[in-house]
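Exercise 7. Predict the structure of ABC transporter permease from Nocardiopsis coralli.
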Amino acid sequence: MRRLRAAPSVAVLVTGVVVLSSLAFFGADPAGTLHDPAARPWHRLIEGLALAAALVSPVLLAVLASRQVDIEHRGNGWLFQQTSGLPPGRLCRAKFAATGALVVAATALQSALVAAVGLAAGISVAFPAETWLSYTAALVVINLVLLALHTVLSACVPNQLVGLGVGVLGVFVTVSGSGMPPWLAHLVPPWGYYGLATPVDSVHSGVVDLDPHHLSIAALGVVGGALFLAATRLLDRGEA
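Solution. The predicted structure, encoded as tokens:
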């Protein structure tokens, strides 16, 4: 994974989300609102985090999965590993576990760094820990499901441009997902679920609370995990 530059890809993921979150927050001209509970500066910052995650995560998760799997296509690694007793599906599960650990750490780190940006900016309003932690947990689930999808897609389709193209299209779905009605966002998993996880939104009167669909996101994690296991077991029974 070091040779595949997984760490720099994860660093770009974290940096991109933190920078875009900060730009969205400071671009809203927060001066004078940092100490005003009615202005809800923390909620404005988490709104920027949600937008940044929707913009950055789909493409970079596709890149992460592609780099882990493409080496097997290029070097006939599927056949080599299978003759060594490691079938393709099991190899995909190992790759997902290793890369998923990095994604979980990166998601938690980017959330913590965005909160640190708020503290450095001087926000003195009480920190909404429950909202922040629940959104971070939902984001972890969605990112892992998306990583699993791209791992299987990259394994099944040797042309890695297909997976990257799906990642780019996913950005359009995630960005438009915030404006979708919930029933429609449920129909485009996992990209539409970024919008379902967002806990706040901006209106003319200020920042309003939304009702995140935590049960739907938990169901996404369960169903996504089951489908990933089923797909990789099918790969185990196939020929390399």
